[in-house]
Amino acid sequence: MTWTAAVAGATGYAGGEVLRLLAAHPEIEIGAVTASSSAGTLLGQHHPHLPELAGREVEPTRAERLAEHDIVVLALPHGASGQVTTAIEEAASASGRSPILVDCGADHRLTSAAAWERYYGGDFAEPWTYGMPELLHAGETSASAQRAALSEATRIAVPGCNVTAVTLAAQPGAAAGLIDTSSLTAVLAVGYSGAGKSLKPHLTAAEALGSAQAYAVGGTHRHVPEIIQNLQVAGVPAGATRLSFTPVLVPMSRGILATVIAPLTSAAQGADDPQALLRGTWEAAYGRNGDGEAVIRLLPEDVWPTTGSVAGSGLAHVQVAVDTTAGVATMMCAIDNLGKGTASAAIQSLNLALGLTETTGVIMQGVAP
User: Which of 190, 244, 294, 306 is deepest in the core (most CB within 10 A)?
Assistant: First the structure.
């Protein structure tokens, strides 16, 4: 069976990455590609790396047109997709259709209206099924509940890219009670494509090349409540996570390298071999030597994640080590922010909703050098 998919916000970085994956997906045919200010232009003007789609005209983002498809992927700015999804649902209902909606923005991620108001503002939208198949639920050592939810989903909220990196780095230890989430620190090196295509002075080459720039410092980044929400799903009690989160733009186009630090709990400190305990816990969650999670690779000990190894792919490289001097766990994750951080997560989740193999159309090899 072949499904048709429309992509709204198709001329942006996230929309382009979604189209790149859909173009190679054996079960999905690309339908309308839409945008707002660039409507009427050719897609090739925005994504010359997609030659087979270059002649497509970018259509206005109209709910009635989007609702004609089996699948609608929204790659819109935060705060925009909530209104669009309501209009699509109304148009689809009027025509008797029921497309699967996949939102790459933040509008349907958070379950707390208070958190939405504090970090985003505006109208709070209904939370959708969370598009992270690997998300652990309380009591799980490997993910199954989230996949079960996605297999029945018709509305999917793709996680934030930074959220994905921090969650995948830390959740095995949080779920097992081996790290103290009340003192969690995350510092991320982030590529510039995560800031989108909008022209801003600090994103120009003159400002960016040869420089590292911290942003959203001091607990103000919008991904903070989403990370805390994920750790609660993994079993951390509400209110038990205090997260210091600092993202830093570095001069690369793609990629996130998250370094997450947390004190060991007494359960980990009292183990005969804390390193072996943590290593075994991460192996239980993700597998070893590629025999567990399809896109997550727990690297061999003493091999550290790099963004170059996952660039252009849907992979996540993870590592964990005990810092015996400081009494903390050092947890790392590297992803491509447009890959596993956005588009690949969308395709993984969509595949589950369609009853397909989860990695269909997901790029499973990085690019080197």
Answer: 190
* Cα separation values, 107 from 80, 84, 125, 339, Å: 8, 11, 6, 20
With 0.85 as the threshold, say if the pTM is over it. yes
What is the arrangement of strands in the sheet containing 316-323, beginning at the earlier edge strand?
213-214, 243-249, 184-190, 256-263, 328-335, 316-323, 296-298
d(CA 73, CA 6): 6
190 forms beta bridges with 249, 256
Write the DSSP assignment of 328-342 as a string of letters.
EEEEEEEE-TTIIII
The reply to whether omega before 369 is within 30° of 0 (cis) is yes
184-190 and 256-263: which strand pairing? antiparallel
- Which two tokens mark 17? 């990455």
The answer to whether the beta carbons of residues 67 and 91 sit under 8 Å apart is yes
> Is 333 labeled as catalytic in the residue annotation?
no
Please identify which of the residues 10, 101, 161, 264 carries the catalytic annotation: 161
Tell me the C-alpha distance between 7 and 309, whole Å: 28
Would you state the structure tokens that stand for residue 141, as one six-digit string?
């050592």
pLDDT band at 306 (very low <50, low <70, confident <90, very high): very high
